[in-house]
């Protein structure tokens, strides 16, 4: 999967060089490109924001740098935009799918595991990280008219910008790509995959500070272990996330 990120703080995305995401990039499973929005601001001070038209507090991101940055990424990307189709020739291979542009925003639809699964099928994601009071509305309109755009929130709280939200989404999506997580079984039983929270986990020793691992887990009876884990998942979900059960 190709992922482009546009941000005024490229350094945030250094975190995606670590751990599983770093390995997935080294192995070519995730092709991540981080772009500094200021490189697309063409005045001497590389200005990316201005005061809100109509008045009010804070600053709004100007449309021109966003237009230049996104046009630069979209050139050559997407269905029908390669050189062969522009020359009216038959394409030699499968055309690249049209990129999906995601603008992280607390005003967007809420990101879920179901959305991560859906987005893991995309060939090309572009994350546009806004700061300040947001991005000039015409940027969303321009790219929604030309292609696919989604505003996505990672939950009901406010961050200073889209960077941390983008990192969370890239990790949630990236770990679902084939080959990224070594043992794909570990993707099956985790929280949210069955619409339930995950059951509690234990390892050795069987007793620690007087606290024993539940006997059933030491029984070797796999049907009983599965039943116990399911019961724990349902009980935990009912207690902390009854909304997931529709209660
Ligand atoms: Cl995607 N952006 C910002 N700035 N704040 C958020 C968010 C996104 N999701 C939740 N809070």
From TrEMBL:
Gene Ontology BP annotations: tRNA N1-guanine methylation
Gene Ontology cellular component list: cytosol
Keyword Transferase recorded: yes
Domain tRNA methyltransferase TRMD/TRM10-type: 1-245
Enzymatic class: transferase
Residues where S-adenosyl-L-methionine binds: 130, 154-159
EC number: 2.1.1.228
GO molecular function, one term: tRNA (guanine(37)-N1)-methyltransferase activity
Catalysed transformations (reactions): guanosine(37) in tRNA + S-adenosyl-L-methionine = N(1)-methylguanosine(37) in tRNA + S-adenosyl-L-homocysteine + H(+)
Pfam families: tRNA_m1G_MT
Main location class: cytoplasm
Keywords in alphabetical order: Cytoplasm, Methyltransferase, S-adenosyl-L-methionine, Transferase, tRNA processing
Family matches, as InterPro entries: Alpha/beta_knot_MTases (IPR029028), tRNA_m1G_MeTrfase_C_sf (IPR023148), tRNA_m1G_MeTrfase_TrmD (IPR002649), tRNA_m1G_MTases_N (IPR029026), tRNA_MeTrfase_TRMD/TRM10 (IPR016009)
Family according to the record: Belongs to the RNA methyltransferase TrmD family.
Role noted for this protein: Specifically methylates guanosine-37 in various tRNAs.
The protein's name: tRNA (guanine-N(1)-)-methyltransferase
